[in-house]
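Holo model, zinc ion. Inputs:
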Amino acid sequence: MPFLFLSDMNDRLRLAIQKSGRLSDDTIDLLTACGINISKPDRKLRALSEHFNLEVLFLRDDDIPGYVADGVADAGIVGENVILEKNKPVDIMERLGFAKCRLSIALPQTVDYRSVKDLNGLHIATSYPGLLGRYFESNGVKASIHEISGSVEIAPGIGLADGICDIVSSGSTLISNGLREVEVVTKSEAVLIAAPTITAEKRARLDRMCFRIQSVLKAKQHRYILMNVPNESIDEVIKLLPGMKAPTVMPLATQGWSSVHSVIPENTFWDVIESLKSVGAEGMLVVPIEKMVL
Ligand code: ATP
Ligand code: ZN
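Output:
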């Protein structure tokens, strides 16, 4: 696609993202939260974001590792599974916490399976021949791989293969096709990658983007909590709060009571709330945080 090279003369940072698919909405939402506004592509393959002097290329996810490795794009956002499959030399800058899934081997529910040795001699359909081949090699499995590009899950049902190796998230697609997940080949999430040949100037700009991404991701993983606490319980409440440094404690208009504010991790949220309640905290408010800069 020669037109991609036409604007090589300017020093805009070029970011490759998926045009449409499971990564595209979350990618655009993340960039927007970082103050980088781009509109969703219709038929266009490129867009400019004046906010960050950024040029966005909308591509198929499979092409992103290659474009970044070759330096046509300076950076990209793509699933780790695709990077591992393409096996291109790119630097992983940041794990982005969305498009979480696993690449797994699944066999018909009726097949008896005890260990990876039971894969020997089987014929497995997949869109990930590179990753699966390396998995077989490192586990000493002698099985054959049938590469297909889509609807992998129906392969055993139509007699094309003994099993499959495909992306799984909840597992419901496997179950509805009479399959059972037997091995996880790799886990994956969306990542920000950079070209190994990126210039120092563009690298510095990408580092600024990473800083913004980290602030957004940290904020998503935390909640701001406000509560009323009888003064005699403040010490116990403080012990339960991880906080950033120390919680804020302010007197309430009602004598003997204080308002305590802190930041708690999202994943421990309910446990912390229950413990706080049990030591006398009440009137708790929990609010989302937009950005978190430490
Ligand atoms: P393209 O048209 O760009 O080639 P595609 O059809 O190959 O797209 P998608 O189905 O949009 O790919 O998936 C993109 C990425 O999203 C996958 O490579 C994987 O990292 C992740 N992904 C796929 N399925 C799921 C899922 N069920 N849950 C979470 N993440 C997923
Ligand atoms: Zn794809």
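The chain has a mean pLDDT of 93. Residues 101-188 form a domain with the D-Maltodextrin-Binding Protein; domain 2 fold (CATH 3.40.190.10).
Archived with the compound record.
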